[in-house]
Amino acid sequence: MNITKENTVAEVVSKNLGSDHVFSKYKIDFCCGGGDTLEKACKERGIEFETLKNEIEAINNKITGGTSIEDIDIPTLINEVKGGFHATISDLFFEVLPYTSKVANVHGLEHKEVIEINELVKGAEVVINETFRNSIMSLYPIIIEIVKASEKTEEISIETLQSLQKSIERNEIAQGLIGDSFKEISKLSSNYTTPDDACSSYDYLYKNLQQLQHEVHKYMHFEKNVLIPKTLNIIE
Questions:
Q1: Residues with Cβ < 8 Å from 123, sequence gap 6 or more?
Q2: Averaged over 79-92, what is the pLDDT?
Q3: Rounded to whole angstroms, how far apart are CA atoms 30 and 36?
Q4: Principal localization (predicted)?
């Protein structure tokens, strides 16, 4: 795509693989803040637009030669997210949670923020698991039903559309909670900067929490700005 200042962050992430890493590098929110234009995002972060654009184009071409995930069919996208984002995020939570508790127990007296971080991470895991469950049991099956009906040129029932809307709303509420949790975690951890007296477990925790936040943001972006719009385009 021809990247302009008027493009939103979400549009760029949807059409340029690897751009999420560039946005993360400059601390630009490509999930909940995906509706911002590049002009606004660059201004807020003090970045030259051309610098951002060139880095995005370079990493996208290196990874895919310009392929867009928007060109991939919906069933394939759903299979990719279940085997990719869901598995990766679940594994990261499994790795991180023992360390949030350990660091809170060992360093909680000197660094009270790690106690709150521990609680926030545990809460975020509960919510993300509910989101995964809703997607697998409700959202994705409804989307597949809509795709099949469209391929057969069959009318999509009002009940199906209502179920789709409810499932989308459930995930949007959950994603808002998750996004807020990671914003607070990032703030409490000074953007995942370990203190001078940090041990190896402390370093490991912050490194993996930052990676977890990145993967969660990519997953939420995928559903909100790629999968749902593609499905709605079928209905329209």
A1: 181
A2: 88
A3: 9
A4: cytoplasm
Quick one: average pLDDT of 109-129? 96
Angstrom CA distances, 167 to 6, 143, 185, stand at: 31, 10, 27
pTM of the entire predicted model: 0.76
CA 54 to CA 45: how far, in whole Å? Answer: 16
Rounded distance, CA 170 to CA 175, Å?
9
What is the rounded distance in angstroms from the CA atom of residue 30 to the CA atom of residue 24?
8
Q: What is the pLDDT of residues 148-170, one digit of tens each?
A: 999 888 889 999 999 999 999 99
What whole-number distance in Å separates Cα of residue 43 and Cα of residue 25?
Answer: 15
Q: How far apart are CA 90 and CA 71, in angstroms?
A: 27
Render pLDDT for 51-74 as a digit per residue (tens, 0 to 9). Answer: 998 888 887 676 554 455 667 789
Phi, psi dihedral angles at 30 (to 5 degrees)? -100, 5
Integer Cα distance of 50 and 124 in angstroms:
36
Banded model confidence at residue 10, pLDDT cuts 50, 70, 90: confident
